[in-house]
Automatic annotation (TrEMBL):
InterPro entries: CHK_kinase-like (IPR015897), EcKL (IPR004119), Kinase-like_dom_sf (IPR011009). This is CHK kinase-like domain-containing protein. Transmembrane segments: none annotated. Signal peptide: none annotated. Residues 108-298 form the CHK kinase-like domain.
């Protein structure tokens, strides 16, 4: 067990000596704000060499900012140094160090999950086995947050108050406009999915729903970008058996429906049968709600269900421009769940 910044047990009297370090630059989608290295560190414990495979993150100095590092880096540092004490560490990389500069430059040092066999899913979409695993992990995180909010609000408030995203960020990112509607209608008109649904009416309803996101008792700390690119899987006999969530720099305080909607809507099956889309959607929602209930038994199940369903259009509004080919299927999933009722 690695504790804080040390490579040995708490209270250990072993003599620890750094032997050597091999480092290689590692590109990720947030490389604009962070410098990331894949590191192999050889450390001697009382003369015996042990090898640690690490990911080392350091923030870039932003030319247009008075801060010494990006605020998204601050989000991730808060997560690893503070929040994990209350949220746990089951489905995240092991953290060796998370610090804003006591030992020099700000740095986050994590285990390199690739060395333990974790990898991104190969396919562009997650299949049902992958998706169920991810939804359960997400629900566990949300359930812990909702329970913490209910029973230890001062600690919970300390966490979300330090996140850099404003509480009204969704209002600006999901406000409808005429160009967006024209894109929807053009895409849906040319879609191979044929049925009797009035798509224009669905779009109008979506505009009504996504003009404002109201703060309520179900708001919690969310990952903010809970998508395939930030999920690493381990496999047994060709099937996913565990998943780790990475890149917590996008955390924000909002409806948990945003996280759920990201992973759910982007991984709908290609099946064009509406009854099967409805069954799949209801099943994924049930898995999510039951997993939250497992962690926070006092939660009002029906009220939470209404919260998730009613706020899903906000998640849709954030991702539809990136998945225009899926627009019609996503809208139908929302409509079948009752998001526009």
């Amino acid at each position: 067990m690695v504790y804080d910044r040390y490579f040995c047990e708490t209270g250990s009297r072993e003599f620890v000596e750094l032997d050597s370090v091999d480092a290689k630059h590692f590109e990720r989608n947030n490389s604009r704000v962070n410098v990331v290295h894949r590191v192999t560190a050889h450390v001697k414990f009382s003369g015996v060499t042990n090898t640690f495979h690490l990911i080392v993150k350091q923030p870039r100095q932003l030319d247009d900012s008075l801060l010494p590092f990006s605020q998204s880096f601050l989000n991730e540092e808060i997560f690893y140094s503070k929040m994990t004490h209350d949220y746990g560490t089951d489905n995240i990389p092991k953290c060796y160090l998370s610090d804003l500069g006591r030992y020099g430059r700000p740095v986050i040092v994590l285990e390199d999950l690739a060395a333990r066999g974790y990898m991104q899913a190969v396919d562009d979409k997650l299949d049902e086995d992958h998706l169920k695993l991810c939804i359960k992990v997400l629900a566990t995180f949300h359930g812990k947050g909702l329970k913490l909010r209910e029973y230890n609000f001062p600690i919970f408030r300390e966490f979300y108050a330090k996140l850099y995203e404003p509480t009204d960020w969704l209002h600006f990112r999901t406000s409808p406009n005429a160009d967006k509607v024209r894109i929807f209608e053009s895409t849906l008109k040319n879609s191979a999915l044929k049925d009797e649904a009035n798509i224009s009416e669905i779009i109008r309803k979506m505009e009504d729903v996504t003009t404002k996101l109201e703060l309520n008792d179900f708001w919690t700390i969310c990952h903010g970008n809970f998508t395939r690119s930030n999920l690493l899987f381990r496999y047994e006999n060709g099937r996913p058996c565990d998943v780790k969530v990475i890149d917590w720099s996008t955390m924000r305080y909002c409806s948990p429906s945003i996280d759920f909607g990201h992973i759910f809507l982007q991984n709908l099956p290609g099946n064009e049968n509406l009854s099967e889309i409805k069954q799949f959607s209801e099943n994924m929602l049930r898995i999510y709600l039951e997993a939250i209930k497992d962690k926070y038994q006092e939660v009002n199940y029906k009220s939470l269900e209404r919260e998730i369903i009613s706020k899903l259009p906000f998640a849709y509004g954030m991702i539809e421009n990136h998945m225009l080919g899926e627009t019609k299927r996503m809208l139908h999933a929302l409509d079948l769940l009752g998001s526009f009722d």
